[in-house]
Specification:
By secondary structure, the chain is of the alpha+beta class. It contains three helices and three strands, in the order H-H-E-H-E-E. Strand 2 and strand 3 form a beta hairpin. The radius of gyration is 20 Å and the shape is globular. The N and C termini lie far apart (55 Å).
Length: 83
């Protein structure tokens, strides 16, 4: 009986978690934005890449595809300006 209650609780928690993840309105609209890929030195910090993005998008930006390559010391990030 105790194991059944635990299983029911875990299933309920999982369903609640899945339903909350499925309701993200910002992600659904990001396809309509114009994305720009910024390339930064791998020796700089991610904050320096974000500062470069702020110069392009003073009202803020969304980030996608944040990549780091240690071999060639390069960082790339795709940004889309907020309206």
């Amino acid at each position: 009986m105790g194991n059944n209650l635990v299983n029911i609780g875990l299933i309920t928690a999982g369903l609640l978690l899945l339903s909350s993840c499925a309701q993200n309105p910002k992600v659904a609209n990001l396809d309509s934005y114009k994305w720009t890929t910024l390339t930064c030195s791998g020796f700089s910090t991610w904050n320096e890449c974000r500062q470069e993005a702020l110069a392009i998008c003073p009202k803020g930006f969304y980030i996608s595809d944040q990549l780091e390559n240690y071999t060639i010391q390069r960082r790339e990030v795709s940004v889309a300006c907020k309206a």
